[in-house]
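Hi X.,

You mentioned you wanted examples for the new student's onboarding notes, showing what a folding record looks like when two proteins sit in one file. Here is a clean example. The first protein comes first, with its sequence line followed by its structure tokens.
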Amino acid sequence: MKKIISIIACAGLLLNSACKKFIDVNHDPNNPTDVQEALILAPAELAISHSLYGGYAAVLSLHYTQAVALNQTLPNDGTYFLVNSQMDGDWGNLYTTCLNNLRILNDKAEKNGNYNYSAIAKILSAFCLGTGTDLWGDMPYSKAFQGASEFTPTYDPQEDIYKDIQALLDNAIADIGKNAANLPGSDDYIYGGDMGKWQRFAYTLKARYYMHLIKAPSYSASAQADLALAALQNGMQSNDDDFKFGYPGTAGNENPWNQTFLPGSTLVLSSYVVDSLKARNDPRLTIMVSPATTPDSAYGPYHGRQIGTQDIGSLESYSIPGPFYSAAGAYNYIVNYSEALFLNAEATLIKSGANAAQPVYQDAIKSHMQKLGVSDANISAYLSSRGILTDSNALRRIIEEKSIADFLSIENYTDWRRTGFPLLNPVPNALLPSIPRRFLYPEVEIISNPQPQQSAKLTDRLWWDAQ
């Protein structure tokens, strides 16, 4: 794999050339205004993995789902301290580095008849839009990316964004069937140009975004489940279909979680996550969680920090994610096959009840454990200990287990808001009476493109997050 630092430099070139038509009237021969599709795809994939799904917004979502804790004085992210300017970088990465460059990639690929590239651009655009709208709600899209003709684009309602997501995915699937030639290769760091996997990923995303709307106004949980189940028939089929980004692990080319949880970092795993795994005798504990460097005799080697506490403890006494997720050369698992199975289990529960959902739910747990290398005997023992799904416990069990399989994923924040599971309470010393249900709009956007939606508070609900 090429050096990650080289891809970041390439991303900068693309950013400069993308903005050039808006702000630079001089010709700079060192900054190309037209590059091949392959040179756009690689940095876009990196930005999605490294910044969008491994950056500050991702970490903030982990605070709200109580997966991580800061060993710092209060207030901090974990007690719901947030100001608008903290969102500037993630918003800029979403729009400028990701969506804008993906728009360039799509337009160029369509013009050149390279429909596999345009398909990937549409799939990644749908994914980025979905990530953004699930954090901020209404967003500029239909009037965005129009250059000097539209410097202050109005925000599209979230319902319209969701329709755009499904249209992008449908059009991407159609593009895949147009041309078997001009396949991506080493420039595609996700699937290596395997368009069958890209298609299965697109269908899985369709199912994800259908299920997000199970309690949206004027939407039926049953109808959304039907749509999701139909999409999943063509979705991910095994762990080999995982949507993941691999890192070489050399200096400057590390997995983002490796950098986030570096020894000496003040971010550690929370007691909520670690104690939950310990309480269930989950065999994944020793794989997902690293033992503390200097264990506290009162807690043992696996010990998370309690969120919201005033004291500052020794970093060496707390656990961080295990090497499977946080080694320098580990994969960043962005969307995995286990999620597809959990979506199937949840949709099956809605349509056919707990008994029908039981085998799918167990297959979902099994798929994640197998990926982590858990033995068959330990898998069987754990599945037996979790018991049988009933009408009263099924949704809770499905989402609890899904949150483990989606370890370090923003998706857990969306699942908590739309289902109420896992069960979470506001942390001690919180600045707000309830857990935040959205992100603040960035200060740079409020200044440059003032819109009425920007008055939203952390505790306001998104459109699909109905009571």
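Then the second protein repeats the pattern, sequence line and then tokens:
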Amino acid sequence: MSDLDFLNRPGVDFSRSGVSRYIQLATLFRRRIEQGVWPVGEQIPTVDDLAAECSVARATVRQALDILEDDKLIKRYRAKGTFVIQQPQEQMWCEVPTDWSGLLLSPEGASVEVLAFDVKAQPVNIQHKIGELAPEYRCWRRRHLRDGRPYYIGNAYIDERLTRKIPHEMLANHTTLRILRDLPGLKLTEVHQTITVGTADLEIAEALEIPLNAPVVYCYRTAVDSKGRLVFVGDGVYRGDVVRLDVKVTVK
């Protein structure tokens, strides 16, 4: 049995996860479109059929289809049914960087909002035990958007001693590591990144305009300078429905 066969077999049990059932269904249905089980231009099964297959209420199926319709993957026609109009790969445009050059670039067409900042701050969630903590940090909370659609929100803690050198306009145009790389007199010698998968709480759901418990990708980054100081601590969240993670595998 293939993974796809398993995902699409009747009687899938959605009760063993903390994620809302309609979110799980939306993920399942999106996968069917992506894999061509529901081809573009074809009609998908009725709400009654999907409810019976997945052992859920008809209202739950409708909620899942609402998400796909909002994402412009399907279109409903009165008295005709629901049809697939595009594949979700077209939305998987936000590549989470896994190398140094990627960490310096923002996706094409992206913009950044500075939502808040805090002086004399201290990071509370340091994933990597490297470097010596700075006496004080300045924290910026930023949200990244593409075509007006938010896809990332995060906090960037930067050594307070460096912040005087950062022009405000850079915060609205560049990634934090790009800003630090270009600061005169600063040399980064060690950068760490940890990526995990989870679900959106209420605050994240509102900030990224996604349903509660929708899939998200958590990203933690830290950077140390040549003097062994922890000059940057970052924690952020990407929408799970627009993220692609590409890793180059070196063959020896």
